Amino acid sequence: MQLEQLLKAVKTVAREGRQDGFDATGLTADSRAVSEGMVFVAVPGVTVDGHKYISGAVERGAGAVVCERMPETIDPRVAYIRVESSAIALGQLASQWYGNPSSKLTLVGVTGTNGKTTTATLYYEMARLLGFKAGLLSTVCNYIDSRPVPTDHTTPDPITINRLLAEMVEAGCTYAAMEVSSHAAHQHRIAGLTFAGGIFTNLTRDHMDYHKTVEAYLQAKKMFFDGLPAEAWALTNADDKRGAVMLQNTRARRYTYSLRSDADFRGRIVEQRLDGTLLSLNGREVETLFTGRFNACNLTAVYGAGVLTGWPVDDVLRCISQLVPVAGRFQTFRSADGVTAIVDYAHTPDALVNVLDTIREVVGAQGEIITVVGCGGNRDAGKRPLMAAESARRSDRLILTSDNPRFEEPEAIIADMEAGLDADARRKTLHITDRREAIRTAVALARPGSVILVAGKGHEDYQEVKGVKHHFDDREEVKRELGV
Description:
484 residues, alpha/beta, six-stranded mixed beta sheet, 17 helices, 24 strands
């Protein structure tokens, strides 16, 4: 692409070095990936500032450099373009490079602490059930219609996002759903994208290692809605006290959904079991394969999003009855002797409360709940005692174990969790560091009618220890121990 054509996407503050146009051969924010004729965007990151690598990019043949600060040495063979924000410029340039693919799709973004993956995935699945080709960008996996593309981040970098969106367009997709993480909004990874709609699920404590305060975390989520265009729609959870905050400054058309009060899209649980829920949506009853108030909330959001997209209500309801749970999200397994195990991604205090309260509602006061849970290393340590306390409060037996310790010692993480337990809670708690042994022990302790919750990893098929990912899948372990 001609450099001048590419630069139409950004507002240039100053320009030095080479002034004539040339054909750019590529776009990157990684100086190590630079080759002859590429445009290098120097982005100040959380730990590394791309401006330090401008000279290296030039040595590798960069034809142009986009930056916030001009380097001291200007190579006359290179075009240097100064912008106000390199991070925003990267998104805008990536979109331009790939032909603005988001404008050729009905792109719906989903943000919130819990429920992003489920809500985004179910919107994508609904589009496909309706006969459309659709794409998905999510924590579990990205999809170009039916083709899976492995994922490493909840929201990829801007170049990857636009490349995937362009592949969706090329494959004939007309709809796409995308998880929008707080990191992505704060780091402007979604800059340059055109969203047709946005959904807010909820907000509870998470990612304090990055955002430091709940208020900063809230504002990062809100940035997504602040950036929606006037022709888009914004759908927020009226049951969350921060739901209204998301809509305060948006230009988009505003809508609400709720399980508790009047809203544009009203959901109500009529009856629930461990394997499904009879749900009322704006007065129409539909049998679903999902369990729990949190899932009823997600389905209500998906119902609202489908209607706002313009799909016929009857078709939306039919699809909701056909949707199946997302991998690792309240995924249920049952043994021949009546022991039920549930694998769920719940990795925040609020998510654990939601899942355990749902199980208790179904099994009743006399039912036995055994919970296996750990916490990730090198992440928000403040939630560890809270997660243990909430799990103990809602379980008959609790097993604290390892999750993804990363570069921390598993025993130290478990000790942080145990700090949240009082004497009564400790008496019903086991400390088993080996996660496989913890799951095996939970199954051995269970009796017919017991429900085991294995929480924290959900769809993940690995444990990350000292920088190495070892294969480990809670679902495989549970199925083997239950003999199913």
